Amino acid sequence: MGEQLTASEWLGRFSEALASGEVDRVTGLFGDECYWRDLTSMTWNLHTAEGREQIGAMLSGVEPGAWPTDLETTSESEADGVHEAWFTFGNATFTGKGLVRVRDGRAWTLLTSAQALRDHPEPSGVRRPRGAEHGVNVSTENWLDKRQQQVESYGVDAEPYVLVVGGGQGGIGLAARLKRLGVPTLVIDRYPRPGDQWRSRYHSLCLHDPVWYDHMPYLPFPDHWPVFTPKDKMGDWLESYVSVMELDYWTSSEATSASFDEATGAWTVHVSREGREVVLHPAQLVLATGMSGIPNVPTLPGQDVFSGDQHHSSKHPGGARYAGKKVVVVGSNNSAHDICADLWQNGAEPIMLQRSSTHIVRSESLMDKVLGPLYSEEAVANGIDHDTADLVFASIPYKILADFQRPAFDAIREQDADFYAALESAGFDLDFGDDDSGLFLKYLRRGSGYYIDIGASELIAKGAIRLVRGQVDHLTEHAVVLTDGTELEADAVVYATGYGSMNGWAARLISQDVADTVGKCWGLGSDTTKDPGPWEGELRNMWKPTRQDNLWFHGGNLHQSRHYSRYLALQLKARLEGIATPVYALAETHHLA
């Protein structure tokens, strides 16, 4: 047992050690098992140093001015022998927030996160703009004139510093942060209106995550907003967000090609905007196309002779047109369940083809046991707003996140034993992840393999959705035939078969060489199913520098897009301002075998 210290006492010694400039003195304050996760503030990266040796290497590998200074404890607590403290800090470039967990007098986990650039604060509060010109020299252009001129100037007599490809919740949340930081940013999206990404999805779609988890930067949902947002309501919110946040946003615009000039440090991006070509030259290119890449559509013998409809789940038009028809849905994850339920509600006969095991968790149980302590009405009442919750979640290193998650999912498995027994009796192949750590680790490792139940599981259990397990061998004119010879009569086939890595968008827009240079996006290298090693400790290529200069990937769920957009925006703002951004531990390129 080490010397017993409160977290604030530990922070005092930590501050003194940092001030000494002695790496060994700093690392000596960390336990045998220890982690320091830095979000941009020291490393200009998202990086987790695991163990004293890696922490020492990180401290030695960054500029001395990047070390935290001016540490001040803001709150502390203790539970089960673990002392926690929130603190603020600064360094030569940033002001930041941190969270430390101390066991037996030494640090177990430490989070440092950049919150703002010292010399470039956001224009909020007393720094807000006036918004009006008074006196005799008032401009003849009003606010609307200036807004329209700004949006139309790109590609004519102005260039965006940042071009964001993809105008969904991720792209516009990032654009809002960049707007506040004064970074000229243009968002382009192929749909006619902001929010159409949601409006175009199948009729019954609602968010599976609760409202407390899904707020956008700066504009949280009002306190009467429904717990689960319907797709069209979400679309309308995003359209309003673009307007209220005054984002430069081109609709009906699609990037058709892009290339990077190493000499000039700029991209050339060809955009088809409402049928005419525009050429843009941004310095930074952000692909904000979600965490998923191009839809995976299997190539199967007989697809050319099948007489019915075939489409990927991303193109599903809704169940109404299939009333009275037999529809085979290939897959058993979120989209497959939603689509099967939608088909059943519209009088179709859905058949779910399960090809591999799937993790299921009831939405109510997820909210109660997993999300509730951080993202719920009770959490808000306890003073945990979504920004605080984001930092708490971020403070748990990915290496040990499974240990934090497993007890909650063990409790869910026990609480919902009857629910799971009914599914297994129907023949459903269940799992809780390779190490029983549940939904979030599956999501982080592979982005697939799970369903948050909002009703479809009951339909499977009682046979309203027919469940078949197996693999597709081929299609005939009127059926899907499995490898064991089973024939599933079908009027339509929906391929709920997921998506490729986000770097597929880079291959399509830029080149395969650039996509290969960047490597796989998403995954941790956990050596679990669909997430082979080597271990990286952070999500690959997300929200941080990649092996292709000036190319960034932004995506994830609403929570991740909201939280990590802060760090991506700060990295881009610093580059605009000419601030030195020496990246520590730029990740190696990784490709799936």
Key terms for this structure?
six-stranded mixed sheet, FAD/NAD-bd_sf, NTF2-like_dom_sf, Auxin_biosynth/cation_transpt, 18 helices, alpha/beta
Structure, described:
There is one protein chain. The protein has a six-stranded mixed β-sheet with strand order 2-1-6-5-4-3, sandwiched between helices. Helices cover 30% and strands 23% of the residues. With 593 residues, it is α/β, with parallel strands linked by helices. The chain has 18 helices and 24 strands.
Brief digest:
It contains 18 helices and 24 strands.
* End-to-end CA span: 44 Å
Percentage of residues assigned to helices: 25-40%
Shape: globular
How does the helix and strand content classify structurally? Answer: alpha/beta
Strand content: 15-25%
Mean pLDDT score: 95
The Cα radius of gyration reads: 25 Å
Q: Count helical runs.
A: 18
Sequence of strands across the biggest β-sheet: 2-1-6-5-4-3
Structure summary, number of beta strands: 24
* Largest sheet composition: 6 strands, mixed
Spans where pLDDT lies below 50 across 5 or more residues: none
Keywords: Oxidoreductase
Pfam family, one: Pyr_redox_3
Protein name: NAD(P)/FAD-dependent oxidoreductase
What layout of secondary structure does this protein have?
Layout: H1 7-20, H2 23-27, E1 30-39, E2 46-50, H3 51-61, E3 69-79, E4 82-90, E5 94-103, E6 106-117, H4 143-153, E7 162-165, H5 169-180, E8 185-188, H6 196-199, H7 231-244, E9 249-250, E10 253-261, E11 266-273, E12 276-280, E13 284-287, E14 309-312, E15 326-330, H8 334-345, E16 349-354, E17 359-362, H9 363-371, H10 377-381, H11 386-394, H12 398-415, H13 417-425, H14 439-446, E18 450-453, H15 456-461, E19 466-469, E20 472-475, E21 479-482, E22 487-489, E23 492-495, H16 503-509, H17 512-518, E24 551-553, H18 558-576
Parallel strand pairs: 1-6, 7-8, 7-13, 8-9, 13-24, 14-23, 15-16, 15-23, 16-19, 17-18
Antiparallel strand pairs: 1-2, 3-4, 4-5, 5-6, 10-11, 11-12, 20-21, 21-22
